[in-house]
Design brief:
alpha+beta; elongated; cholesterol transfer activity; secreted; Bactericidal permeability-increasing protein, domain 1; seven-stranded antiparallel β-sheet; transport; Bactericidal permeability-increasing protein, domain 2
């Protein structure tokens, strides 16, 4: 079939379909999971480049949101006795990030490097020293001017039926740590002691807390995306199970995830057991691809019909072939009954004669179908805009109908509104 530009209907309906959702256990082998997969999302390298442009904002959120614990130490010095000290109220200021780079590593994960992270850490040193003759207690504020490179190698896996990221492979390289003591009036030996202590402590504490916070922010991001997807795909009694069927696959050119896409309506759930997906169905020419089985679309449309979503009254004045009125129509998988009447209502059934059936056919083809299409696009677009799809910067979307499935492909700009919402939630 020829391809056609697709208006913001089905495309936007499934825009968030492959994100996150609840499901049962995943299969270890992707090939074995294909037959249970109703929806596939392929994010190509150019799309990852666009998303990476805002990675620095998420990293900034991790640095700013991190809570740095107090740390205490103790040392015995000749002629001075025991020196105790503690680092408290450590905060980050003047944060700036140079650039972010990434690499998709086939069969491994994603390698990310955040370079030229400049920050000033401020805090207070509580210390005391003395001997059996004297015991003094003091406090002094300090600043540490730092320059850091950050590396993260997240792995994507199936965690409780959803896409999850393991960010434990995280490291920090400190290129500069320069200590400034307020007033700078302390004895040289004490400044040397504090320099060693603070330098060691800041490296240890910052590394541990930043890597921990990155993992935390990743979980917040996962929850945020899941909430967004669930809100988008839930309307009344209709929802979609978008849990993954197997772990995502990463190649040098794309990231691909596999999802159930099971329609839920009135406490019933659709079943997919013989899906026809194969990776060769998708290319790498566009930024984002959605593969949708007919076994996803048919139950979804049927549920919408059963829920009374697709109803349209066409008055007698709009029908030129007769004074009768068509109130419901039938269009492919959209199941619509037909009613026409002179003085009341008359529903189509097996008792219709040939003339009546021919009238219905003509009315549906010449008047009903064009009318339904004109109204359907406007109404579905209105509903999708209510769900927030009008906020996405989608470019040149296309739909490619195939035998048993549909491929939707597009380019896109970064969804700034989602980033703003996420950062607001993260920094609360």
């Amino acid at each position: 079939m020829t391809r056609e530009v697709f208006p913001p209907l089905l495309l936007l309906l499934v825009l968030l379909l492959p994100l996150f959702g609840a499901s049962q256990r995943c299969l270890q082998d992707p090939v074995s999971a294909y037959r249970f997969t109703g929806t596939v999302c392929r994010l190509t390298h150019p799309a990852a480049v666009v998303l990476n442009e805002k990675t620095t904002k998420v990293i900034e959120a991790a640095f700013q949101h991190a809570k740095y614990p107090s740390v205490k130490g103790e040392k015995s010095l000749l002629f001075v006795g025991r020196v105790t000290y503690g680092l408290e109220n450590l905060e980050i200021h003047n944060l700036s990030i140079g650039r972010s780079a990434f690499e998709l590593r086939a069969g491994e994960g994603i390698a990310m490097e955040i370079s030229n992270v400049s920050a000033i850490f401020r805090g207070t040193i509580q210390y005391g020293y003395g001997s059996w003759l004297v015991n003094l207690g003091h406090s002094i504020d300090f600043e540490v001017d730092s320059q850091i490179d950050l590396g993260i190698n997240p792995k994507l896996y199936c965690g409780k039926g959803k896409v999850a990221a393991d960010t434990s492979d995280c490291y920090l390289n400190f290129h500069k740590l320069h200590l400034h003591l307020q007033g700078d009036k302390e004895p040289n030996w004490l400044k040397k002691l504090f320099t060693d202590f603070i330098t060691f402590t800041v490296k240890l504490v910052v590394k541990g807390q930043i890597c921990k916070e990155i993992n935390k922010v990743a979980n917040i991001l996962a929850d945020f995306i899941q909430d967004t997807a669930e809100d988008f795909l839930s309307d009344g009694d209709i929802s979609v199970d978008i849990g993954i069927t197997t772990a995502p696959v990463i190649t040098a050119n794309y990231i691909e995830s596999y999802h159930k896409g099971l329609t839920k309506y009135n406490k019933t759930t659709a079943v997919i057991s013989d899906s026809a997906f194969h990776p060769s169905h998708l290319t790498e020419n566009r930024m984002l691809y959605f593969w949708l089985s007919d076994q996803v679309l048919n139950p979804l449309v049927t549920a919408a019909h059963q829920d009374g979503r697709f109803q349209l009254n066409i008055t007698g004045a709009e029908i030129t072939v007769s004074t009768q009125t068509v109130t419901f129509l039938h269009l492919e998988t959209v199941l619509l009954s037909v009613t026409f009447s002179e003085n009341g209502n008359f529903r189509s059934d097996a008792s219709l004669d040939e003339v009546q059936s021919e009238f219905i056919r003509e009315a549906v083809e010449k008047i009903g179908v064009p009318k339904v299409l004109s109204v359907l696009e406007v109404e579905i677009t209105r509903v999708l805009d209510k769900q927030g799809t009008n906020l996405f910067d989608i470019e040149n979307p296309e739909v490619l109908p195939r035998d048993g499935f549909v491929v939707i492909q597009m380019d896109f700009g970064f969804p700034h509104h989602l980033l703003v919402q996420f950062l607001k939630r993260t920094l609360q």
